[in-house]
Each structure stands twice: as C-alpha cells, then as structure tokens.
Specification:
With 78 residues, the protein is an alpha+beta fold. The chain has 2 helices and 3 strands, in the order βαββα. The chain has a 3-stranded mixed beta sheet.
C-alpha cells in the first residue's frame, strides 16, 4: 500500500497524518518523501497499515536529540 506523497509547505504535524509506508522507487532507494520531510516537517505523524499512528523523525539531529531524551529519562530512575 505504498502511496506517493507530495508535501505542502507548513505541514502541521499535530493535524496532518501521512499514510505509511511511503512509496519506494526501488528496494535500494529511500522514499523521495524523506527529503521533503527533512526540509518541511522533520517530525511527521504517520498512520501504519494497522491503523495505529506514530511519528517519523527524518533529520539526524532530531533523531539524536530524541534518543538522548529517552536515554536521559531511563537514567533518572524511580
């Protein structure tokens, strides 16, 4: 159920939910939408085929920040 997505400028991740998985031109090429997500909406809400929702974090710096926050929470203890 791959769909080609063209993003609008100023996507609001609080209200916009993108269908996932994204269309892949081939098995070795990442979906083109990732380039657009990095530029316009680096943290995007997605809906999986199961109907569950989640987030795609597409910029390295944002992924690194999110992981550091999760690790810091784990270190805080009870």
């Amino acid at each position: 159920m791959d769909t080609e997505i063209e993003l609008e400028t100023g996507i609001d991740p609080a209200t916009t939910v993108l269908p996932f998985p994204f269309h892949r031109p081939s098995a070795v090429e990442p979906p083109a939408v990732y380039h657009e997500l990095r530029a316009k909406c680096p943290v995007a809400r997605v809906q999986f085929p199961s109907g569950d929702e989640g987030y795609i974090v597409s910029r390295y710096e944002d992924v690194e920040h999110a992981l550091r926050c999760v690790l810091a929470e784990d270190d805080s203890g009870p």
